[in-house]
Amino acid sequence: MSGDHPISEKLRGTLRGFPEATIQDCAAFQATGDPAAFERAVLGLVHHHLSPKPPKPLATYPRSTALVAELGLDSITMVELVFIFEDLFAAKLPQEELLQVVTIDDLLNLLRRHLPAPPPA
Fold first, then answer.
1. 3-state SS, residue 32
2. Model confidence over 16-65: pLDDT tens digits?
3. 9-113: in CATH 1.10.1200.10
4. In the chain, where does DSSP find H-type helix?
5. d(CA 28, CA 108)
6. Where are the domains positioned within the chain?
7. Taking the complete model, does pTM exceed 0.85, yes or no?
């Protein structure tokens, strides 16, 4: 994670109350398309919404960790996250695919599949 990517007022507004590291990761991904920044951003967004918070960062959990059964993510929180993901990553997430998301890996893969293609170099 690096702090050298400009953070727009829109991004700051969307992520008001989120940890600075998550905001930085979102800005880095938006600026560079860096897959590592994307993954850190998604995990940071999910971690912020969990209640109670897991005892360790989500990046340390196996990608097979179940969002609902093991982390306690509820359907209302998932809807909130979908709106944030769609806004931040310009991804349209089909409901039928969302219903099949069980694990951290499922979520990351769904988001990756629906990210807009990067502009040609």
1. helix
2. 999 999 999 999 999 999 999 999 999 999 999 999 999 899 999 999 99
3. yes
4. 9-14, 20-32, 35-49, 75-89, 95-98, 104-113
5. 17
6. 9-113
7. yes
